[in-house]
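For the sake of transparency, this paper describes our internal protein records without simplification. Because each token names a local backbone shape, the row as a whole describes the fold. One such record is reproduced below, unchanged from the form in which we store it.
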Amino acid sequence: MDFDLDKMSLKELRDMRSKLDRAISSYEDRRRREAIQAAEEAARAHGFNLAELTGSAPRKPTTVAPKYAHPENPSLTWTGRGRKPRWVQENLDAGKSLEDLLI
């Protein structure tokens, strides 16, 4: 494959760059999967699985218990993580503190 980059338009160059980026990413992903598979096979050959050897078990999503509740509607709750719900901000603006909203 021979490309004369000087004769290519800007659009052609950008298209080539995006194709090249995808090819590189695909190559890296493929090599990573091959490396993980080889490591898993080596671990199995010694009677282990890869998670046992690396100490990294697959993480399970955890649920966080609510920490705050709306004073008039206890079904509205907030864990204290992420963006404050509107009802929390409204209570704070009204002069209440987060401690007032604790469950």
Observations:
- The mean pLDDT is 91.
- The radius of gyration is 27 Å.
- The CA atoms of residues 10 and 16 lie 10 Å apart.
- The chain is about 50% helix and 5% strand.
